[in-house]
Predict the 3D structure of the following.
Amino acid sequence: MKLHQLPIGQTGVITKVGGEGELRYRFLDMGLIPKTKVTVTKVAPMGDPLEIRLRGYTLTLRVEDAQNIEVIQEGADV
């Protein structure tokens, strides 16, 4: 599933970071690295952006960017 599809309050593990060139490097620089746990903490009233918690800090991402991050919901069967 894509990061923006993870329900509020749920934790997932990043499996793949998409995007090309500068965009992908920006994701990696922000700590969005495979095998990292992320939790969706809030979603704006209109659905964009969303707030996630990872590596001890909070990050806000646009849904357009979150569509490039693949996650597996923690506790889901692999």
Summary: The first helix runs from residue 22 to 29.
